[in-house]
Amino acid sequence: MVLWIALNQEQHEYACLLRMNNWNQRCSPTSLLMLFRVFLFSLLPLGLMGCASNGAQNSSEDPLEPYNRWMHNFNMEGDRILIKPLAQMYDQTLPGPVKTGVRNFYNNLREPATIVNDLLQGKPDKAAKDTLRFLFNTTFGMLGLIDIASYLGLPRQVEDFGQTLAVWGVPAGPYFVLPFLGPSTIRDSFGVAAGSIYTDPLNELESPEKEYASVLRLLSIRAELLPADKLLEAQPDQYLFIREAWRQRRERMIHDSVDDPDESRKAEEALIGELLEE
Question: How far apart are CA 173 and CA 168, in angstroms?
């Protein structure tokens, strides 16, 4: 995978990590949501003005491209200065089995959100399988530290509110790079907000435990993406590379064509190969 693609599933964690001051008082779900909304809608007019003043750069596929490129560069610089160094420290400090356990634990925490969206999309069979997966991993897998369910023929699947809105027929809208959070669309932006409010188990924790857990989850995700950095750095147009890779992966997720993790990786590798040949 490439940088930012998987972060689509955990995007709201960047807001919490980058607000380093007074975590105990400021990093509550309500305050974070308010900050996100204020910042997002304050930057949107700037992006629209950029589109109006740079019409030659726009296209029907990416009408917000001037704004998106500016925000992409802003996000990448934040990653270079803060997120990546912390992820490298995390990756070098913890042994492999511990990192695997952390990743499995947080993946397991996402299962209830997937189950809810299975039901909202009218997929009771998938909801039943994902429920069994959650129960097996939570009990026999020591709260999800060990992915027992995958060995029992219950691979991990991911469903979120953005996918649910797509199934309901809500148009995607233009490609839209979110502050701190990376690739999205107008539709998926609402899905991110809904997921962070209603189905994130970390919201049940008290400060500062919630903030520590959120940071650990983010570092686990970013550390897993470190091997892709060299590939991304080799791209002549990183924004275009990420945009097209994210769009195609998102379409496969919406149409349930990446249920098998191995097949997902193969599809992503094929996509990268196609982009490199162009």
Answer: 14
**3 state SS for 183-200:** CCEHHHHHHHHHHHHHCC
3-state SS, 26-70, equals HCCHHHHHHHHHHHHHHHHHHHHHHHHHCHHHCCCCCCCHHHHHH
d(CA 18, CA 52): 30
Distance, CA of 111 to CA of 133 (rounded, Å): 8
Specify whether the CB–CB gap between 242 and 2 falls below 8 A. Answer: yes
Cβ atoms of residues 78 and 18 within 8 Å = yes
- Decide if 145 contacts 101 (C-beta within 8 A): yes
CA 244, 247, 251, 252 torsion: positive or negative?
positive
Amino acid identity, position 100: T
Cα–Cα distance measured from residue 134 to residue 43, given in angstroms and rounded to the nearest whole number: 39
Residue type, 229: D
Q: Tens digits of per-residue pLDDT, 103-114?
A: 999 999 999 999
Q: For residue range 155-173, list pLDDT tens digits in order.
A: 999 999 999 999 999 999 9
Cα separation, 202 vs 255, whole angstroms: 28
Low-confidence ranges of the chain (pLDDT < 70): 1-60, 258-278
Look up tokens 């982009």; give the residue. Answer: 275
Three-state DSSP class for 178? strand
